[in-house]
Model the fold of this input.
Amino acid sequence: MIDISRVTKRYGASVAVKEVSLTVAAGQTMVLIGPSGSGKTTLLKMINRMVDFDEGSIRVNGLDIAGADPVALRRGIGYVIQQIGLLPHFSVSDNISFVLRLLGQPKPLRDERAEALARLVGLPPEVLVKRPFQLSGGQQQRVGVARALAADPAIILMDEPFGAVDPITRRKLQDMILELQERMRKTIVFVTHDMQEALTLGHRVAVLDRGELVWQDTAAATAESEQPFVRELIGATGRCAR
Ligand SMILES: Nc1ncnc2c1ncn2[C@@H]1O[C@H](COP(=O)(O)OP(=O)(O)O)[C@@H](O)[C@H]1O
Ligand SMILES: [Mg+2]
Done:
């Protein structure tokens, strides 16, 4: 469970995130949506302490993260981004199991785990020995998700992970996330600026506008919202979840 309480982040005179309070229940997917510059990435990165905040508090499974060791904290939190950051000289298998290597696991165990994770995210086993550049964009994103799952974290943060792929691939990747959630029930915070994606993936949807939380509710209630800013976002990308 993630409990964000009145959190504010400033960059000089400008406020990136303003007094945001938000609770993400265990096993649920919370989607953060808002236009570019609304504070989505900043809010996400505060959860694993890649960005420190100025005011408020964040608790992860009851632990106040301000006093936590960032490295230990991040071990329990998977992180997936659009730019993936796969290591070009490593095989797909070694990329997926990279964190296990840091944790000192022996190679045979890592390979076994990478194979299971590849299957889980819908990658054919023959890609395991390839290099990342030999994969399609969609496959690379699947590797990014598999890598985030390697140490079996309870929480996964995803920052516009599917922003750069074509619409058909994007739907497939969204289906993969839905299937994973059905099976694994992770606590996921997923950032997007696409309302279709938000309504498809989120149990709940939180809307940011210029650093402020202006709406949060279930996906169903969000789809029916009369709030003008929410309606605007729905109008921009379609109201239908599927
Ligand atoms: N490292 C930084 N230094 C200064 N300003 C920043 C920094 N990171 C983000 N900002 C500012 O904070 C605001 C929110 O940014 P961000 O969280 O990246 O928004 P989003 O992810 O919704 O596009 C923006 O105005 C952005 O310019
Ligand atoms: Mg961002």
Summary: The beta strands are 2-11, 14-24, 29-33, 55-60, 63-64, 77-81, 155-159, 187-192, 204-209, 212-218. DSSP finds ten helices and ten strands in the chain.
